[in-house]
Amino acid sequence: MAKKVLVCDDDENILLAVSHIVEKEGYEVVKARDGNESIKIALAEKPRLIILDLMMPEKTGYEVCEELRKDPTTKDTYIILLTARGKPLSEHTGMVKGANEFMVKPFDPRELREKIQKILA
Amino acid sequence: MEINRHKIFCIALLIFVLVIGVSCLLNAIKWTGRPYPGILLYKNCILSIIQPLGSAKFGIRYPDIILEISGKRIKSAEDVYEVARNVEIGTPVKYKIDRFGKTFEKTISTQSFSPTDVFSTFGIAYIPGLIAIFTGIILYWSMHASRAARYFSGNLITLGFTAILLFDFITSYSFYKLLIIDVSLLPAFIIVFSLSYPEERRVIQKRYLFPSLCGLSFLFIILYFLCLPIPWAYRYVDLSVWTYVAIGMTGVIYSIIHTLLRSHSQEARKRAEVAIWGSGISMFLSLIIILLTLALHIQTAFYFFPVASLLFFASIFYSIIKHNIFETDPAIIRGITYALTTLIITVIYVLILSTFNLLLGRFEFSQSPLFPFIFALIIVFVFSPLRDRVRNFIDQTLNRERIRFREVIKKASEEVISILNLDDLLNKLVNTVSEAIQVERASIMIADPQGGNFSLARERITQSIPPKNSTIEKNDPLLNFIRNNKNRALIKKEIEDVKKYEAVRKTMEQMGAELCAPLVYQDKIIGLFNLGSKLSGEGYISEDIEILNPLSKQAAVAMENCRLIEEQRDLQARVIRYQEMDKLKSDFLSNVSHELRTPMTSVKAYSTILLDEIDELDRDNQEKFLNIIIKESDRLIRLISDLLDLQKIEAGKIEWKYEDINLSDLLKETVEVFSGGARDKKIEIIERVEAKLPIISGDRDRLFQVITNLLSNAIKFSPEGGRIVVSAEANLDEILISVKDNGRGIPEDMRERIFDRFQQVDNSAWEKTKGTGLGLAIAKEIVEHHKGRIWVESELNKGSDFKISLPYGKR
Question: Fewer C-beta neighbours within 10 Å, C or N terminus of chain B?
Fold first, then answer.
């Protein structure tokens, strides 16, 4: 079974770009475009990695993170938070909510690629 | 105590009074029981018989003149007395009388003035006279600055002297020349008094008035003494002088009636009322007495005649105390006390003298010798307790209200300090004092903390009196006066006659204030408490100031507290607003950051992917990705451009190009531009623009930007097959433009916020649009720069109507 990666972002272009990078590495991508959808799909598909945008409609990335950490099936899933708003407060809050990593937009696709390789290897 | 000419005058007068007064008394006592012609003479003109009823019996009356007595030609009363006193009591004496040219003879026995007569005259004439003189002197001493006080004390002194000298006249006839002078001066004072009582007439301010009246008096005095040797002449002089006096007295009555009927001053009318009552009762009594004596021949009734006339004077007196022309209470009370004290001392002296005479056998009194002795003893024993009783009685009647007043004010000052709301404080002050004193008007003025000028903060008026002037400058003469006077409250009466304080009095009049109490905090006047006339007609006295003092102090402190609390609240409000603004700024920055980074993310991501997978990507994806890069770059450009636009508008750095714009053309143009795009979405644009809209002055490009923004939003938010109506019409002073769609509408809480930056109707049910979020914010700035307004009216699921109002005719 291919390892699944959940990509959540409300911007279509970014969603597409990230998905492309993940798929290039050979993993299956599931997409979500808002907070609630993210939680639903995460619980359903149980991905290995979640790349989560912070600013989404319905629920923010923080809230999604918090909720997923409460559920035993997803509490250990690797979560990378992506945001266009600045560090460092966001990073700290993110870590507090239980994310594993934090990345700032615009991100370097090569950096993302490396991370994915490392995490899912 | 500075010794000035006024005080010297008072002391001289006092000495004079003591000398005359004591002499009169001693003389009277000396001549008691001694033979007397039985006729009351004035020069050698008969005034009356001592026992008035006897005049009918004797057949002589005023103004008969005695030519001869016992054959001796006489010129003056002394001649008569010389003869009469040297015979036994009861010896008949022959008189030759002239009655307007007719001569006849009369025989009258000598009478003797009994002690009863002396003492009854003493009680009725001498004592009030002495009291009046002392009161007058004390009044002059303490209030010589006030014109009314000066005239009134002059009145009291001359009247007092008249009474004392009448006593002498009746008893020993030693000072009749003084009486002439006094009686001549009397009318001058009476007339001036009638012009200042019950209220001051303007004529009294004329400087020539009093001196000319006195001049007339002196004229009469000179005439009198000139006519001394001419019997028939002085009769007429005499008549004239008494006519002069009568005119004066009539003047007083007239003045009282006039005030009662015509005066505007509550106070004056009250005084007139009391005086009228007094005159009425006294006239009524006099009539009864005359009736009793003449018709019913009840002799003793006549002795009450002076009482009736005293009543008249007493009522005037009382009205002056109670309805203060000026502060007479202390003067009058002291006057009475001192007069009585002097009397006692004199009496005791006389007693000692009489006792000696008694012991040494020189028995002078023909009747009950113990009478004067017992009388004097009674006075001595009764005086102190009597004086205290009188004092208490006066205190109770006049001061009972004052005691209650004091308590009410004291309670109020304790309560006032805990009021923290300025409105409540002002109400409490004004209401408490109004109810405690019953005033016409009570108002409070507060100093503006910045300007320093005082403006009316609260006023309470009873009755239909007009409200008064509401501001005074911080350097107003009234305020300067109060400051120079150690911030003591000011009663208008205190400066009424003083010329140099005319401006101060004027300010008080403008405010309708009889009393001005400053509210002082840390030596600065922060407010003024103004009280108008008391409804009772009474005037204000220094005790009132004393009672109001604690209240003013506490009120000032309370006012400061209220001000500080309000300041604090203001500060807190400002802090909150700053915090909110700060938050908005942070949010804005955060938003900008996000909006810039998002498209950049796509550009960077896709460019990197394209490079890294340059050999692996298929043609479709290559095109797709490159297009995204271009689109997102465009988005970034638009965003940056909008941001810069907004910043420039706000900073005022935009160069607005003003020209005359025909809005109809502009709107039609814009509709044209979008018609293509609209048709693609199957949206209908309907244009309802008035053909002849007024020309307005503005920046065409920018206004175009605004309409474009609205239209593109309308198209964005309209469903397929929707309808947009663009209309414009001219109202009285504005042009109203409307862009109406039938899209999803805007929820109520967003209707104002959408004009803020980066606010988009943000909800998963709505399509996320690719706008910059700044369009409406920019539109708002542009519209407001043209002095217009932009707003939206919307109903959920029915549509939104964006409206712009642009004024024309002015910029």
Answer: N
